[in-house]
Write a structure and sequence with these properties.
Elements lengths: L10 H4 L3 H11 L14 E4 L4 E4 L4 H27 L3 H22 L10 H11 L13 E6 L2 E8 L4 E2 L5 E3 L4 E3 L4 E3 L4 E3 L4 H31 L4 H6 L6 H21 L3 H6 L20 H9 L16 H4 L29 H4 L25 H4 L1
Antiparallel strand pairs: 1-2, 3-4, 4-5, 6-7, 8-9
Length: 388
């Protein structure tokens, strides 16, 4: 049998050295994580959480591009003629309206619409115990509601199974962003965000200023065509020199949208409530009036557009707690120290010791001669050494 060499391993060598564990911990805790990095909704964040957008925000560049191209054509084709024949204030007014439209659009798109944070595991477990009366953990009960009184009118609060909470009044869950939004109006793909309590005033200023801008451009285009026609040119030639006559087809939709939202602001309604007919008499309710209306157009407008800006509740730039920001390192993440291997030329190949050397048989415990002899494998019969 070949000689086998065994080396005893010091158990203390298996323990992780303090320096390696400290380096691993420092590597994990190099940069504190912020809450937007683990946000559960379907949103995208930019500039370290300062900008929030919906995941489907591909139409926003198109909206911005249409505004920029339309105003660029206006300043290139119509403004030089109108400045020469009318006044120099035309491009100034157009530039001011353009800047106001772009700022309102970007503020609508980049502002938190009023997302409500989801319930913590403890809060969710407590609410689930209250509404789950079946006693089964796999059974999902139907949506439950709570009833509250607002201005002597019953308002139902629905339970959101995604956010694990009862939605506050006028709150709805957006299926595209996967968030509960306070005073949810609608999800607007043109601005790439939901429109809710915190950004509705910017959305309304955007569509109103866009209506003024398109009306101003359309009026200037008509004036340009009229002056060209009076100068002796035909109407077709005048239209060819002012390509923005296409504003005639887009101005009506923008004016209609502005008028609709002006009606909503004056009534203190949302688009979601108006489409569903929540406070319509057609639903057959006796007291079907809007409980949120102040019965005054001026008061409704001031409350909707001029009230104080509520703070964001999701705190997307806040730092995560240490136990959540730096999870415990698993055994696979910890680097074990490498053992110095001996030179293969000086260390014999490992082998398996023979059973006789491990369990030697005494003379009194030998098998009788008549018993069948069983050949036990030894190092010479096993090919483990050769495989090593």
């Amino acid at each position: 049998m070949k000689n086998c060499e065994y080396q005893q391993i010091d158990p203390r060598a298996l323990s992780v050295s303090p320096s390696s564990a400290q380096n691993h911990t420092e590597k994990k805790a190099q940069r504190p994580r912020r809450k937007w990095e683990v946000f559960p909704g379907k949103n995208r964040f930019f500039c370290d959480g300062r900008i929030i957008l919906a995941r489907q925000s591909g139409v926003l560049p198109l909206t911005l591009g249409l505004i920029v191209v339309t105003c660029g054509l206006f300043f290139a084709f119509d403004c030089p003629f109108l400045v020469e024949h009318l006044t120099v204030f035309i491009p100034v007014i157009g530039g001011v309206l353009f800047v106001f439209v772009v700022i309102s659009l970007l503020r609508t798109s980049f502002t938190d619409p009023g997302i409500l944070p989801r319930a913590t595991p403890d809060e969710a477990a407590d609410i689930e115990k209250q509404i789950d009366t079946s006693g089964s953990s796999t059974y999902r009960p139907p949506p439950r509601t709570k009833e509250i009184l607002i201005n002597q009118q019953v308002v139902k609060l629905k339970y959101c199974f995604t956010c694990k909470m009862f939605r506050p009044p006028r709150t709805s869950h957006c299926s595209l962003c996967d968030n509960c939004v306070e005073r949810f109006d609608h999800h607007c793909p043109w601005v790439g965000n939901c429109v809710g309590k915190r950004n509705y005033r910017f959305f309304y200023s955007f569509i109103i200023s866009l209506s003024f801008l398109t009306s101003f451009i359309f009026g200037c285009v008509i004036t340009h065509i009229t002056l060209r026609s009076q100068a002796g040119k035909s109407l077709l030639q005048a239209i060819q020199e002012s390509p923005l006559v296409i504003c005639f087809f887009s101005i009506w939709s923008i004016l209609g949208l502005s008028g609709f939202h002006t009606y909503l602001v004056a009534s203190n309604l949302t688009t979601n409530e108006d489409i569903k007919g929540s406070w319509s008499s057609k639903r057959g309710a006796e007291d079907s009036g809007n409980p949120y209306s102040y019965n005054s157009i001026m008061t409704n407008c001031c409350v909707t557009l001029c009230g104080p800006m509520p703070p964001s509740l999701i705190d997307r730039r806040g730092l995560l707690p240490p136990d959540e920001a730096t999870p415990a390192a698993s055994a696979s993440d910890i680097e074990l120290p490498l053992f110095a291997a001996k030179n293969d030329t000086h260390m014999p190949a490992p082998c398996v010791p023979s059973p006789q050397s491990v369990f030697p048989l005494s003379s009194s415990s030998r098998l009788p001669d008549s018993a069948p002899q069983v050949e036990l494998p030894t190092c010479s019969t096993l090919d483990l050494c050769s495989e090593s």
